[in-house]
Amino acid sequence: MPDGESEVRAIILFGPPGSGKGTQAKLIRDALSVAHISTGDMLRERMKTEDELGLELRRSLGAGQYACDELVNRMVQERIQDGDCANGFILDGYPRTLSQARTIGQTLEAQGIGRVVIHLRVDYNRIIARLAGRRHCAQCGAVYHLTARPPQQSGRCDACQAELAIRDDDRESVVRRRLDVYDAQTKPLLEYFSGDGSAFYEIDGATAPPPAIAGQICELVRNGRAVGVARS
Questions:
Q1: Active site residue 178
Q2: Is 121 considered catalytic here?
Q3: Domains of the chain
Q4: Residue 9 annotated among the catalytic residues of the structure
Q5: Cβ-Cβ contacts under 8 Å for 20 (sequence gap 6 or more)
Q6: Structural contact between residues 151 and 136, judged by C-beta atoms closer than 8 angstroms
Q7: Beta-strand pair 113-121/199-204
Q8: Which of 40, 163, 200, 215 counts the highest number of beta carbons within 10 A?
């Protein structure tokens, strides 16, 4: 990686919708005692503040615009200076554009922070089956799956007997659109990181239990000074 002798403290985690990225982020956070930085959560929290950046974000998002790269970059650059990031941090949902990728790369290199880039690779047919099979109880919040965790009575919640429904985001047509958007948005970033000298790894996110996948990722992070691309 460009900062090859730097201590690996930054984990940049990518994964399509339904890949289990959120679960992996939590498992890795707990295993390595690092901070989990979700830019989506940060944007929502920062908009509640009255500081300059919070007000700028509120104006942009309130007008129906996306937060511009400059604002998101500033927010992340501030966040990684917090004390809980001293031992390392996971970037979840960032970077989303090539401009953001270049900025965080330069920031980490300037601060002597090594990085490992992890892409959770899952066959899209598996993702569609996983998400489209989910059913949700609007009354008590219970979640079921038609094959992995079916309700005892078809279409009814075990806990409260309310009718189960499928969320709009879990409908197959919506899932396919989300995956198309992910491909278009993320492919250039993966090509960038796999070619810029980063320690870049693609991990199969579907053929082992989540703790085993997290253990594999943690081992790669611990050995992250290795340069090159590894695909498992």
A1: yes
A2: no
A3: 7-231 (3.40.50.300)
A4: no
A5: 120, 122, 205, 210, 213
A6: no
A7: parallel
A8: 200
Return the number of other C-beta atoms located less than 10 Å from residue 73's C-beta.
Answer: 21
Reported as a single tens digit per residue, the pLDDT across 59-75 is: 766 665 667 888 889 88
Q: Which residue do the tokens 């944007």 mark? A: 43
178-175-193-218 Cα dihedral, nearest 10 degrees: 140
Q: How far is CA 225 from CA 3, 25, 125, 207, 220, in A?
A: 9, 20, 34, 26, 9
For residue 224, give every residue at least 6 positions away whose Cβ sits within 8 Å of its Cβ, in sequence order, or none: 8, 114, 115, 116, 199
Q: Does 156 qualify as catalytic in the annotation?
A: no
**Per-residue pLDDT tens over the stretch 138-158:** 999 999 999 989 999 999 999
> Which of these, 143, 186, 147, lies nearest to 162 by C-alpha position?
143
* SS3 category, 165: strand
118's tokens: 């992890």
Of 137, 131, 168, residue with least CA distance to 155? 137
Identify whether 26 is a catalytic site residue: no
Among residues 167, 177, 187, 231, the one annotated as catalytic is: 167
